[in-house]
Amino acid sequence: MNKERLYDAFGELIYALAMADGLIQPKEIQALDRILEGHAWASQIKWSFNYEANKALDLKQVYKKALDTFTQHGPDEEYIYLIEILQKVAKASDGIDAAEQEMIELFQKDLKESFIIEMEKRNLV
Questions:
Q1: Which helix (H) or strand (E) holds 22?
Q2: Do residues 11 and 48 touch, judged by C-beta distance below 8 A?
Q3: What DSSP string runs through 83-109?
Q4: What 3-state DSSP class applies to 69?
Q5: What is the mean pLDDT of the segment spanning 87-95?
């Protein structure tokens, strides 16, 4: 899997998080812009975020599509950066609310489980 698709999935997941409380807040977009400043793939991540925001797709579908991409891509150090982005975007608008915290925790759990399942399929565990 190529890096472009990985960073598309970053944008998808960040969009799903920003919409977890029902509305993308201007402070969340500003925080995302600040966080991505200087990142080599910032424009790809932001493009994907904007694409999802303009389509207004079902959040569960967007989340699943992103998770599927991460599973196919496999482990990557960039997921640490992604978790930081999610936390900072969630904090940007009056702190992390329950829906955002739930999504961050669910993502971490789902990602770990998906890697374990993939490893078991390949007899690596």
A1: none
A2: yes
A3: HHHHHHHHHHTTS--HHHHHHHHHHHH
A4: helix
A5: 91
